[in-house]
């Protein structure tokens, strides 16, 4: 059986037995927060449990490395929408130790893409179109560096209020321990003095 058929078969039974009812909530986050975190598989259940989050508590945005790579990209758009349309009052940027974006090697990613059928012509065309794959497929040297950079972009975004707490944390993907890297309350207090 294919993976999609396995999922659809399970889903049919999930809906028929009304197991969805325990997850019913509104689109507004009960804890009025938005979380930007990594897509790492170890965090799917661990991060919400480590933060005492339940369905409906937070808007959760995931990408590779919890990185805001462009101040007007889709990640920032999602944060702006969460703040102004969905009543989020705080932002949490949460990376994790042992992240695959640490020391990401763009040449290795491109070589793997070629192994999966992406031609040299496509790579060359992208380069001639002004897309620098080496820069686009980059991560960070240390997870803390990635978190600090993302927090800084969010905190200084021209469309977000200066009194918006933006926190930076790193989670241990084995134990769930959270280390505070950037205290959003402190940054807000310092900006008002």
TrEMBL record:
The organism's place on the tree of life at top rank: Bacteria
Keyword S-adenosyl-L-methionine annotated: no
Pfam families attached to this UniProt entry: Pro_CA
SUPFAM superfamilies from the UniProt entry: beta-carbonic anhydrase, cab
Catalytic activity: hydrogencarbonate + H(+) = CO2 + H2O
Gene3D superfamilies for the chain: Carbonic anhydrase
Keyword Zinc: yes
EC number(s) per entry: 4.2.1.1
InterPro entries the record matches: Carbonic_anhydrase (IPR001765), Carbonic_anhydrase_sf (IPR036874)
Cofactor: Zn(2+)
The protein's enzyme class: lyase
Keywords, ordered alphabetically: Metal-binding, Zinc
Family per record: Belongs to the beta-class carbonic anhydrase family.
Name this protein carries in UniProt: carbonic anhydrase
Organism of origin: Paenibacillus marchantiophytorum
